[in-house]
Amino acid sequence: MVIEPKVKGFICITAHPDGCDENVRRAVEYSLAHKGESKDGPKNVLVIGSSTGYGLASRITAAFSFGAATVGVAYERPSSGKRTASAGWYNNAAFEKYAAKHSLPFASLNGDAFSDEMKVQTMEAIRKTMPGQKLDLIVYSVAAPKRTDPHTGETYSSVLKPIGKPYCEKSVDFHTGKISSVSLDPATEEEISATIKVMGGEDWLMWINALKENDLIAENAVTLAYSYIGPELTHAVYKDGTIGKAKDDLEEKAREIDKALSSIGGKAYISVNKALVTQSSAAIPVVPLYISILYRLMKENGTHENCIMQMNRLFHRIYDSSDVKSVPVDDCGRIRMDDLEMAEDIQSRLKDVWSVISSDNIDELTDIKGYRDDFYALFGFGLDNVDYTRDITDF
């Protein structure tokens, strides 16, 4: 059949296998053209949450820029009947195709990263894929709406809400370009706690403890998790909201992991990344409008980066340093990959645009089209070099 995008709110329920393959191919080509020269680059890498966004870009960068063997863990949906697979499923298939083409060792596991069973399966895959070797880089990049605690069996759901008081601000329907006011009620204490359980650092710590207990972490290894801070404009719904509390927990767990790895010279980092169009960010009120303005300004400034460009720069920042403990960080020990986004001139101009933005001038003052294009591209649609009229029988 001919596969077309079918959108419900901020999610596309179809994905195009050829388009997802093209996305991965482009990222692979970029990584091959920006190979790392450091002899101390990662060689044995685990990416937990490896099928989309920054996790996928991390895996591609490790493999194709640094020649690393990789194990990827993700939870994606295969095709069923006339229903396409999820974009992440096709992304994983494309990664495997290109890794095999370049003779790079890999293993991909599909299942619940929060479960003990998946952790055990991953340990086995590491031993088979990297025989006699240990991990020198562990990337934790899981974004999920729910989590079942493997110890208690209780399931928690995350929410995107402000804390303390209601929040009202501009937002945009990026499909139509219509700007309206969005109001959000504050989260309850139960919702805050549940969001921390899902999106905080507890599972990251569990992974590191399990890997360490199985003697699968090399000396001087690095582990990374990703976060976002953003400008004051988005703080109420992000940094100071439920998701921000979860990110605070992530940083707290990073400090615990850092202590756990100190005996083998390892290091845990939080990388604060740039705002980009992802399935997660599309769900956060205010953020799509903010990103649409940001994109226009950064593209005009020549400083815009997509996922693969950002991860390539991050890996170079880490592995071009004299050692893994001398990476440039802020006062809280975080790697600030949002430095270009948070540049004073960009944020000053963004505030000016925000004060006058409306449905009438959105095409003039923002890159709403670029946002929309990037959203559809997440699911493999709207890309050059892809024949969207092709009758696809095996998807």
Describe the overall structure.
The protein has 395 residues and is of the alpha/beta class. The protein has one domain: Rossmann fold, CATH 3.40.50. Helix content is 41%, strand content 16%. The protein is built from 13 helices and 13 strands. Strands 5-4-3-6-11-12-13 form a 7-stranded parallel sheet, sandwiched between helices. A two-stranded antiparallel sheet has the order 1-2. Strands 7-8 form a two-stranded antiparallel ribbon. α2 runs parallel beside α3, α2 crosses α10 and α6 packs parallel to α8. The longest helix is centred in the middle third of the chain and has 20 residues. The chain is globular and about 60 Å long. The model has no long low-confidence stretch (mean pLDDT 95).
Brief description of this entry?
The protein has a single domain (7-160, 190-283, 304-339), classed as Rossmann fold (3-Layer(aba) Sandwich), CATH 3.40.50.720. Helices cover 41% and strands 16% of the residues. The protein has helices spanning 17-33, 53-66, 87-101, 116-129, 189-199, 202-213, 232-235, 242-261, 287-301, 307-319, 344-356, 362-365, 368-378; strands at 7-8, 11-12, 44-48, 69-74, 106-110, 135-140, 146-148, 155-157, 167-173, 178-184, 217-227, 267-272, 335-336.
List keywords for this structure.
alpha/beta; Rossmann fold; 7-stranded parallel beta sheet; two-stranded antiparallel sheet; 13 strands; 16% strand
CATH homologous superfamily designation: NAD(P)-binding Rossmann-like Domain
The first-level CATH class is given as Alpha Beta
CA-atom Rg in angstroms: 20 Å
| CATH architecture descriptor name | 3-Layer(aba) Sandwich
